[in-house]
Amino acid sequence: MTSEPRGGFEVDEISDCDVETVVSLWRSSGLVRPWNDPYQDIHNARSTPTATILVVRPGARGDTDALRTPVGSVMAGFDGHRGWLYYLAVDEPARGAGLGRMLVVAAEAWLAAQGAEKAQLMVREANAAVQGFYTALGYSDAECVVLGRRLA
Ligand SMILES: CC(C)(COP(=O)(O)OP(=O)(O)OC[C@H]1O[C@@H](n2cnc3c(N)ncnc32)[C@H](O)[C@@H]1OP(=O)(O)O)[C@@H](O)C(=O)NCCC(=O)NCCS
């Protein structure tokens, strides 16, 4: 899956050489919690046919890997009923230029191709500032309480 280049950036699937950059991005964006192993999360998503990790990168195909270093990421997964988004992040200097939107639009298209009719995501209470971003993209509060229990 590769999007049409837009504004010098394009979205495609994460590759092996992107993993360190993406983990650093998640850490610097405050998305990794002590109980998350980001490498395992990346491995699990890449091993599951109904999940993916998309990255947005500058440059054009054929440029060196260094020029194509990702500046944003999103994880998407279809659970058979709904599509979920996780780990959306854009590197701080690259924010405000439409790349977060580009990633969400690409993830939505990927989920729709999987058969998902609705995309949703969880926002940590401490990250209320990001809600305006999702509102700008047409997301609204699902008025649900999310419950969880660790299985491993
Ligand atoms: C959330 C995040 C990915 C947004 O990326 P971005 O590239 O800066 O977003 P965009 O430039 O694509 O913004 C898209 C729209 O949202 C708006 N927007 C962005 N951040 C916003 C905010 N905090 N509040 C209100 N609106 C916001 C933009 O103005 C833009 O609106 P427009 O298209 O009508 O002009 C980025 O801020 C980030 O990485 N945050 C840290 C990680 C994080 O919190 N991830 C979400 C976890 S749930």
UniProtKB/TrEMBL annotation:
<keyword id="KW-0012">Acyltransferase</keyword>
<feature type="domain" description="N-acetyltransferase">
    <location>
        <begin position="9"/>
        <end position="152"/>
    </location>
</feature>
<keyword id="KW-0687">Ribonucleoprotein</keyword>
<protein>
    <submittedName>
        <fullName>Ribosomal protein S18 acetylase RimI-like enzyme</fullName>
    </submittedName>
</protein>
<dbReference type="GO" id="GO:0005840">
    <property type="term" value="C:ribosome"/>
</dbReference>
<dbReference type="Pfam" id="PF00583">
    <property type="entry name" value="Acetyltransf_1"/>
</dbReference>
<dbReference type="InterPro" id="IPR000182">
    <property type="entry name" value="GNAT_dom"/>
</dbReference>
<keyword id="KW-0689">Ribosomal protein</keyword>
<dbReference type="InterPro" id="IPR050832">
    <property type="entry name" value="Bact_Acetyltransf"/>
</dbReference>
<dbReference type="GO" id="GO:0016747">
    <property type="term" value="F:acyltransferase activity, transferring groups other than amino-acyl groups"/>
</dbReference>
<keyword id="KW-0808">Transferase</keyword>
<dbReference type="InterPro" id="IPR016181">
    <property type="entry name" value="Acyl_CoA_acyltransferase"/>
</dbReference>
